[in-house]
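Archive record
______________

***
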Amino acid sequence: MLVGILILIGMWIFFYKVKILDLPLSPYGVSQVWTIESKIDFDATTGRSAKVEFFIPPTQAHFHRLDENFVSRNYGVTTDLAVDNRLSIWTIRHAPKTSQTLYYRAQFYFDEAFQGPNLSNRGITGRYLYTGAERAAQQTIISNARQQSVDSLSFATNVVKNLNKPDDGNAAILLNRDYSNANIAITAAKLLKGPTVEEGPNIISRLVYGFTLSETEVALQDIPLQIYLGIYDTEHGWRYIDPNSARVGLPPYFLIWRYGDQTPILGVEGGRNEQLTFSAIKREVNTLNVAQEEALQDHSILMTYSLFNLPIHTQEVYQVLIMVPLGALIILLLRSFVGIRTFGTFMPVLIALAFRKTHLLDGIILFTLIVSLGLTVRFYLEQLKLLLIPRLSAVLSTVIILMILLSLFSNQLDFQTGLSVALFPMVILTMIIERMSIVWEERNAWEAILQGIGSLFAAAIAYLAMSNLYMEHLFFVFPELLLVIIAIMLLLGCYHGYRLSELIRFRELIKKHDI
């Protein structure tokens, strides 16, 4: 029951972080993050108050907003929600008689799986009644589109196609020979609404403003806003049509800046000569950083009390310590199931930690050299018939002297690995030398060497697991996996069967049993 509870809690928190908080399982994952900046310039009227209303990007599908900043001098800033849109308002009581510049900057990252909020079905209100030749052209285009369509989407696309015919007199009259995308989209929205309830199709429509972000890490300056025609049906929701090609659907990486009608994106009171420019740049950011920022914005308790909120130097310590239980589990498996003999359980784990600085092969060489020299001194001290504590103190001091000498020789030989010898746990080396000498005396030299080799082998296996970047990432980002490690240890603690090495040890008995 205890094992089941530990695994349930640990795996539930793990899957919650992966599925809900989108924390990555790989340390190498990257997300595409765009920094968007809008610049507002205008000339303020002397001594008067100024008010700037500017639509900013709403929450939308495929784009997470990581951060946003309003940069202005002495202006108050508020944001309001307005039917699927967000409106920012800059205000100042006395604007100086100078050119004013306001900035809005935001960061977005692309997530194909993010669906965004449910949008309302509110479209353009009011009907547009043409007169004279324009009314006749309106009725002709509506009639032609109705004959060529079977539903609201095909009707809207046919209206757009008919308006894109320069040789069509009806389109020329309605567009006033202005074939820009914005004029076509606005005119199509009027036609979809119809002049009256009886005569018009009454399709819910609205305009969508935005721009397509670059897929490459290139700065984009003076990005022009693009306009699309959106129509709504109860089955598929909002569908978007390109006013130039009548193609259905928004292009990839299209960031919607606002939904609406002909109301301008920027409005200035108390100023003139307003100008609005957009720029954007893309960069790749580690997915973990993106997920952290998003979780903190959502005020997630798990991220508030995570290791990432600790000071940097404390995080570095825990990046090492959190791998110790994994190393202990590996040593437990090697001792209890394989039957490898080592000098204790935690000594190989601490040796493996030292290998993280010296690397595996160099660490084994340095370990073997220091232990061999330390054993020689230990056997000499045995001849002096010293007590245990003085003998251990002398061996410890000898180990330090050996480490110093190795570092000095390595420095002269320009052998940088030898300089890392001081990172070995000195007390552990001392205890290994003492334990190895006792086993040598009480049992035999072969048993002492066998346990020494077993300790090195177990430490090497633990090092390979503890230094793996994927494992370091998993345990630091998901420390709840330690509960699963504890559960596995509890299960292994109930095992009283044979070890793999005992198949070799008792092979003669197995042969006799078969006979």
